[in-house]
Amino acid sequence: MDEDNLFIFTIEVLGTIAFAISGIRLAAAKSFDWFGAYIVGLVTAIGGGTLRDLLLGIPVFWMQSGMYLAVTFLSLVTVIIFRKALVKGMRTLFIFDAIGLALFVVVGIEKSFAADFPAWVAIAMGIITGSFGGVTRDILINEEPLFFRKDIYATACLAGGLIYWLVMNIPGTTPIVPQICCAVTVVGLRIAAVHFNWALPILKVDPKDLPEQ
Questions:
Q1: In this predicted model, which residue has the larger pLDDT, 213 or 67?
Q2: Which of 52-61, 63-72, 77-86, 172-181 has the lowest mean pLDDT?
Q3: What is the DSSP secondary-structure string of 143-206?
Q4: CA 63/CA 50 separation, integer angstroms
Q5: Which of 31, 75, 110, 211 is at 20 to 30 A from 184, Cα to Cα?
Q6: Is 20 helix (H, G, I), strand (E, B) or coil?
């Protein structure tokens, strides 16, 4: 494995851990059994990357190595052992979700460029990689997907992708700089959105304007 592929593999594993713990933590809060919690964690961790690879027409990443299934299992064991610290409160979920989101946006962009797709496709794949697993997780646990709420979530992925593209076009920039800038942007926007209660406008329709059934 060359240096670039090793780097992508490393952040993909770290993102898997972060997203798996966020999914398992939510499943635990819903009183799922261990197997159900594992499935929720696994879907959270691999859902976005699976859709990305299918759309890019490249081998699905988790089918190339059993590492991701094992990492998700270790994440389950971690939550079981440290369940009081990890399940209590929303802050823990937010931290792991924000880290996983940032890392997966970077992975989605990097894999798209490696497959010779243009920047706009890479940014879209970054959003999908970061967001789709969480959407699937929320559907499985019967929650309204965070992606579709007014929270700054997909917007943070978009901003991170744009920053990546802008920084990579600066002459003399090494590859790791746009990656770091992208991840910091995503995490920073998520933290700022929660701290300052930022939100996108809600699309509202007056019930009186709806056609009668």
A1: 67
A2: 77-86
A3: ---GGGSSSSSHHHHHHHHHHHHHHHTSTT--THHHHHHHHHHHHHHHHHHHHHT--PPP----
A4: 9
A5: 75
A6: helix
